[in-house]
Specification:
With 109 residues, the chain is mainly alpha-helical. The chain is 89% helix and 0% strand.
């Protein structure tokens, strides 16, 4: 009777351990599946972005081959130089000239 009792206790403990082990494995698998789904969504977004980038690069390449990009690029610098290069810069007065002009203004009054 003593041996049967020991065997029953062993099987009860082994059953509880197996159930706990399976619950832990299930939790780990659940979280692993969530991580894999997130990674899959990120990869899909990266693939969509790479397709857009590939189309942009092909458009850029076609503009370079046709010469449109180079003319626009040079036109941008020419336009920039034309706007800011032709303006006269205001001359700065030194402090001696400022004092003379103030004294002349006082005399005129």
């Amino acid at each position: 009777m003593n041996e049967i009792l020991h065997a029953n206790i062993f099987f009860v403990i082994a059953s509880i351990g197996t159930v706990i082990f399976l619950v832990l494995v299930s939790i780990i698998l659940f979280h692993a599946i969530k991580i894999i789904k997130s990674v899959r969504r990120i990869i899909e977004k990266i693939e969509a972005g790479s397709e857009i980038l590939a189309s942009d690069v092909s458009n850029f390449r076609s503009q370079i081959i046709n010469g449109g990009f180079l003319s626009r690029f040079l036109g941008l610098f020419i336009d920039y130089a034309g706007r800011f290069g032709s303006q006269e810069k205001p001359k700065r007065r030194n402090s001696a000239q400022t004092k003379k002009s103030k004294s002349k203004d006082d005399e005129d009054e």
